[in-house]
Write a structure and sequence with these properties.
Layout: H1 2-16, H2 23-39, H3 41-52, H4 56-82, E1 85-86, E2 89-90, E3 97-104, E4 107-111, H5 117-130, E5 134-138, H6 144-157, E6 163-165, H7 170-177, E7 183-187, H8 190-201, E8 207-210, E9 216-219, H9 225-237, E10 249-253, H10 257-272, H11 288-296, E11 302-305, E12 309-310, E13 315-316, E14 319-322, E15 339-345, H12 348-356, E16 363-367, H13 371-380, E17 385-388, E18 409-410, H14 415-421, E19 423-430, H15 436-439, H16 448-459, E20 461-462, H17 469-482, H18 487-505
Parallel strand pairs: 4-5, 4-7, 5-6, 7-8, 9-10, 9-16, 10-15, 14-15, 16-17
Antiparallel strand pairs: 1-3, 2-20, 3-19, 8-18, 11-14, 12-13
Length: 507
């Protein structure tokens, strides 16, 4: 569609104007996004209630607070993160300026998800803005009320040329993916993730994919089951199970299987009452399509609790499944809904083996008092993230990268990881045209003696952070003088110089 080409072209022209290079401009845009959230909180809550039956408190906790925290962090750290990053030098570059310079990638495409429509669309946007990029944002059409509000509000608060919002479904997304971007970030399922990656490959565009998966939850037999079940139920049934890092299934010791089921039943009643359908804290499935998909996963499984549903309101009760076979339908795909299968294992080694026989998950949870067991699980499994003795909390830590591995995704974001994801880390070396005598060792004609000195000069890494500019200047001058001396004197003095610099750089 010409509309997509024009949208991307407009964003690229705005990026090429270089107005986003200014750190002050970027901060102004971040502050504008903060105003968008505070001035439209009621409208955001209303859109989320219409899409997912979220209440206002959940909107604040799970959508707005995280974005406000991210904005505050970016405003505080942006100047530091965007500054040149000095690196260690070798003796051949003793007098040179050597550093990494973060620079914007260009025009970024962000494809959001419907389960947390504002958080998952706007949090990557914050990182892309902070890094100085232009952005084309595609919110999910499935959460139609939220997408429409994002489309309305973004141009009212942000630069209308640099930051474009495109709404629509599969057709519009397909057309967008035909255009050339400098980075694409997609949140969703692995099937669409492969389509995004294939489209990006045609332009050699790098991607960040956050894809989810079946996140396991292991419960050791020696735990406080009341506390464990409360934390698992919170992580599982928040947003009606429609969270990419929700516990997908439980692996527990056979000896505590019945206790886990009973305590989960009590916890569900504690959280949502005897009839969760009447609870203001319990969300709904996003659409009829997903409602039917989730119900189909019940085939061949025994319902230990819950199982009620109402298609008219897309309601599925919190449901516990037992006697689940590892080959059953519910164990073959990410559930992304309020069904919680419970499987039994004999010990932690069997749990680790079960986990490792499947695709690497986005998150892994383990409940155990013994830190040695927890460390064993971390060491012998692989996942995007891992949280011990709780669920989902690692998502809230801005100093941790959030992302998947293998089938659960690639790349990461949050905090500085967002800034780095949307930046090119440019290797920079600024050399003087003076002291050419030092460089003669690398020029033809070659000799074994020159090769020996080149090896020493290049392989000896030196960190001059503690030496000071004056001392570096003195070393450079000394090196230049030594290069004018005779061969034997040069060999002796260069050796002493290298040893001295190595010893000082270690202090």
């Amino acid at each position: 569609m010409d509309q997509m080409k024009n949208t991307v072209g407009k964003a690229r022209a705005a990026f090429n104007s270089r107005k986003a290079c200014s750190l002050e401009f970027r901060k102004q845009q971040l502050q504008a996004l903060r105003r968008l959230l505070t001035e439209n909180e009621d409208r955001i809550a209303d859109a989320l209630h219409k899409d997912l039956n979220k209440n206002k408190l959940d909107t604040q906790v799970f959508e707005i607070m995280g974005l406000e925290g991210e904005i505050a962090l970016l405003l505080e750290k942006l100047t530091e993160w965007a500054a040149p990053r000095p690196v260690e030098r070798n003796l051949l570059t003793l007098m040179d300026e050597v550093y990494i310079q973060p620079e914007p990638l260009g025009v970024v495409l962000i494809i959001g998800a419907w389960n947390y429509p504002f958080l998952i669309s706007l949090q990557p946007l914050l990182g892309a803005i902070a890094a100085g990029n232009a952005v084309v944002l595609k919110p999910s059409e499935v959460s139609e009320n939220s997408a429409a509000l994002i489309k309305e509000l973004i141009p009212k608060y942000l630069d209308k040329d640099l930051y474009q919002v495109v709404c629509g479904g599969v057709a519009e997304t397909t057309e967008l993916l035909k255009e050339k971007f400098d980075h694409i970030m997609y949140t969703g399922n692995s099937t669409v993730g492969k389509i995004v990656m294939e489209a990006a490959a045609k332009h050699l565009t790098p991607v960040t994919l956050e894809l989810g998966g079946k996140s396991p939850c292991y419960i050791d037999k020696n735990v406080d089951i009341d506390t464990v079940c409360r934390r698992i139920a919170w992580g599982k049934f928040t947003n009606c199970g429609q969270t990419c890092i929700a516990p997908d299934y439980i692996l527990c010791d056979k000896s505590i299987h019945e206790k886990v089921i009973e305590r989960l039943k009590e916890t569900i009643k504690e959280f949502y009452g005897e009839d969760p359908k009447k609870s203001p804290d319990y969300c709904r499935i996003i659409s009829t399509h997903h409602f039917k998909r989730i119900l189909s996963l019940l085939e061949g499984s025994k319902v230990a609790y819950g199982g009620q549903y109402d298609e008219a309101s897309c309601y599925i009760a919190p449901t516990i499944l037992t006697d689940v076979s590892p080959t059953s339908k519910v164990m073959k795909e990410e559930i992304f809904g309020p069904l919680l299968p419970i499987l039994t294992v004999n010990n932690v080694d069997e749990a680790i083996q079960f986990i490792n026989q499947r695709d690497k998950p986005l998150a892994l949870y383990a409940f155990c008092h013994d830190k040695k067991v927890l460390k064993k699980i971390v060491a012998e499994t692989s996942s995007g993230g891992v949280t011990a003795n709780d669920t989902m909390i690692h998502f809230t830590i801005s100093t941790l990268p959030f992302g998947g591995v293998g089938n659960s995704g690639m790349g990461a974001y949050h905090g500085k990881f967002s800034f780095d994801t949307f930046s090119h880390h440019r290797a920079c070396l600024i050399k003087s045209l003076k002291m050419e005598t030092v460089n003669k060792v690398r020029y033809p004609p070659g000799s074994p003696e020159k090769v020996k000195w080149i090896k020493r000069l290049i392989t000896k890494q030196v960190n001059f952070g503690k030496l000071g500019l004056v001392f570096i200047g003195l070393l450079g001058a000394l090196l230049a003088v030594l290069m004018k001396n005779g061969r034997m004197q040069l060999r002796r003095n260069m050796f002493l110089l290298i040893c001295a610099v190595q010893n000082l750089s270690r202090k």
